[in-house]
Amino acid sequence: MRIRLIFTLIFTILIINFSQAQKQRTDANITGHVVDSKGEHIPFASVTVKGTTIGTITDETGHYQLINLPEGELVIEADCMGCKPDEVSITIKAGESKEIKFELEEEAMDIQEVVVTGDRTGKSRDESSVIVNSLKPKIFQATHSITLDESLDFSPGLRMENNCQNCGFSQVRMNGMEGPYSQILIDSRPIFSGLAGVYGLELIPSNMIERVEVIRGGGSALYGSNAIAGTVNLILKEPKNNFYEFGVSGNSIGAANDYPNPAEDYTANFNTSVVSSDNKTGMALYGFYREKEPFDANDDGFSELASIENITVGSRLFHRFDTRNKLTIDFFHIDEDRRGGNKHDYLPHLADIAEQVTHKISTGAITYDQFFNEKDLLSVYASGQKINRDSYYGAEQSLRDYGNTENFTHTIGAQYTDHTNRGNFTVGIENSGEWLKDKKMGYPDIENADIDYTDSTLSIESRDNRTIADQTINTAGVFAQYEINWEQLQVSVGGRFDHYAIDDKSKDNSDVSGNVFSPRITLKYDAMESLQLRTSYAQGYRAPQIYDEDLHIETSGARKVIHENAPDLQQEASHSYMASLDYNRQVGNNNYINFLVEGFYTQLNDAFVNEFGDSDDEGTVVYTRKNAEEGAVVKGVNMEMNLTSSNNWEFKAGYTMQTSKYKQPHEFNKKAFFRTPDNYGYFTVDWDATEHIEISSSGNYTGIMYIPYFGPELTEPEEGELRRSNPFFDWGMKVNYKIRINGAKLQVFGGIKNILNSYQNDFDQGIERDPAYIYGPRAPRTIYFGIKVGNKL
Asked: In whole angstroms, what is the distance from residue 260 CA to residue 749 CA?
């Protein structure tokens, strides 16, 4: 009913605006060009009319045009990455054409870039009440990040990890907390489900992403459940001008004779967009193909990295009915097959161990934006994601371990932001829902059949399909935030009220519901022009629903691990405190320095922990999620430094020191969170050596951590052992050569990841191995080459 109402509202608005859009064109036009302080033209700079949805970007020569503009006084703004925005006020009449030239001053730190995640509104980064870190295509290219997960290591407080040798189950940890503590958003909408999250961030190709915005700290006040550690917001590609790009690459995993069987990884991708001459209608298309072989590090016949085949296609369309509104439609579809274990050329049930999943993920969204004056904005939106997953998690030629999971998530809502002279007020309503059904597929019961192979009328009993989970979740929420400015001080107060209802149809008397209020208060003080101080307090929560790890099964020849919730599991709550010092300064001529120190402290009440069960006759072990006594505390410091020089080089680095502990001992009689190093960090260096040559270097450091081990090396594997890892340093280099071919640009690149081959060397072996005993960098030394062609490289 709610979905029908929201689509009816959107449809009504569209009809009204379509009729209004039939007004006669004004033929009021502005043309011009954008240059830097040296007088050189800036290609692909953004030029917009403030308070409207009208905008374009300059072409390859730095020129632009805006046609059929509204009459009257307009404010035209120009901006580009690495420059300070500039604006000009102009009065224009129907039938009149004017020229505006913009000269932008360099600002390599991008401290005034527009971000949307911090307060659910677009504003400059230095005006945001919370720290927002952005990952952009430049990082993707410098680190050769084929998929999104490969780039997240290069943001403070974030660390990606692989949790399974068989299938590559991965997660992002933020400020030391596991993946389910972070909310993954797509264009600010929480439709990335727990099922998608099992392998999710490795499913998303980087070429479909415009940028990634990362916020550390409690975000439940604006984004609801699971945003305890923070949020990762994926902003999809936006059509801005006529543009095309195509690229291919080849990667050799475990190259240079380090391993007996290197694995090949091939990718191809394209991006293109077309925009009408009046900039009212545009469409972007993107596509991605990947074929990756399984990688076996210790030559035991079992993969450490799964094989992957991924095909992704997607599109974004927009239309402006008039100058103050915009309709945007998004769609993308992902087909992915992955397989780990051994005997990859056989059917899964003919292997000794196989974990195989096939995903079909379709995601769509529609958003309508309406300005009511220069800044006040109403957004009405609806998003949905449908997943169909076929799976096999089994060993010893078992037929009983085929499964199918169907999942649908949706978010519908509306948000209004009212800007005043002293600040702004944001209010919204949102309804999110998820339906998930997981079942084991029926199979012929050959094991217990009395088979007479001479009998041509042989009849074998079959096992029927069996439902494992059938869960419906619905969360209705309202949120509001008020921000007020007093000269150097900015105060923001907000909160969100959610009512969630979880109906588990596969279990009796297991329905759960609750009401949660999540407040947040932030303060930002501009101590000096170059120094900002921020502090915040926020509450968050996690409802007792099915999480991503519940939908992944660790399999070996000796045991199988599944996850479930305790019957009396209560929601988990958090109290998060943060304080930061953000220093930005220009040193000399066009040399910039940025230094950030951020402290965090999070108290987790009724924290979720696992309790190991005993193995049954079939070797199945149940990990039961329950509430920890007295909770847990996560605390530490994130540091970030950015240096940019006029000599065409840029250096970025981040480092995290933290501890994550329960207040009472739990697994292995320890308080510490496992798989969580107390120290980790990264760096990137980019140098434009010549007009045609770019050189990049990047590295990741992973400190010592504790890893549980349940494998055949132990006398009693079911009891397990806690092991201590070594530190790792993953260092890479890349060289990129650019040339112009007529109207196009060509890039040829090559490089090495993990040059020092800092990689785990004690993988478990054989059919009874512990597949969860995997840690450190996610790939060994890898050599890669590639080529790109386009008009915007």
From this structure: 26
Angle at 46 between CA 115 and CA 366, to 5 degrees: 60
The C-alpha atoms of residue 185 and residue 233 are separated, in whole angstroms, by: 5
CB-CB contact of 624 with 656 (8 Å): no
Which has the higher per-residue pLDDT, 616 or 186?
A: 186
Q: How distant is the alpha carbon of residue 517 from its chain centre?
A: 26
768 pLDDT more than 50: yes
Count of residues in the chain? 793
Region for 345 from its dihedrals, namely left if φ exceeds 0, alpha if ψ lies in -120 to 50, beta otherwise: alpha
User: From CA 143, how far away is CA 152, in angstroms rounded?
Assistant: 11
Contact 640, 653 (CB under 8 A): yes
Counting Cα atoms < 13 Å in the Cβ hemisphere of 750 gives: 3
In the structure, how many helices (H) and strands (E) does the chain have? 4, 45
Choice among 98-112, 428-442, 637-651 with the minimum mean pLDDT: 98-112
pLDDT at position 693, please? 95
Average pLDDT over residues 544-554: 79
CB 548 within 8 A of CB 556: no
Give me the residue label for tokens 């990634």: 212
pLDDT for position 127: 82
CB atoms within 10 A of CB 299: 10
* CA–CA distance, 533 with 580 (Å, rounded to integer): 6
Q: Is beta strand 230-236 parallel, antiparallel or unpaired with respect to 182-186?
A: parallel
* pLDDT above 70 for 455: no
Task: Considering only CA atoms, give the Rg of the chain.
Answer: 27
- Secondary structure (H, E, C), 683-743: EEEEEECCCCEEEEEEEEEECCCEEEECCCCCCCHHHCEEEECCCEEEEEEEEEEEEEECC
Q: Is 695 left (phi over 0), alpha (psi -120 to 50) or beta?
A: beta
* Ordered DSSP codes for 41-94: B-TT-EEEETTSS-EEE--TTSEEEE-SPPSEEEEEEEE-TTB--EEEEEEE-T
Strand, helix or coil for residue 162: strand
How do residues 117-161 score in pLDDT, each as one tens digit?
777 777 777 788 888 889 999 999 999 999 999 999 999 999 999
* DSSP bridge pairs for 285: 272, 315
How is 421-483 classified by DSSP, letter by letter? SSEEEEEEEEEEEEEEEEEEPPEE--TT----TT-TT----EEPPEEEEEEEEEEEEEEEEEE
Cα–Cα separations (whole angstroms), residue 767 to 353, 547, 619, 764: 7, 27, 13, 9
Give the helix/strand (H/E) hosting 573.
Answer: strand 572-587
DSSP run (H or E) holding 520: strand 512-528
d(CA 650, CA 251): 26
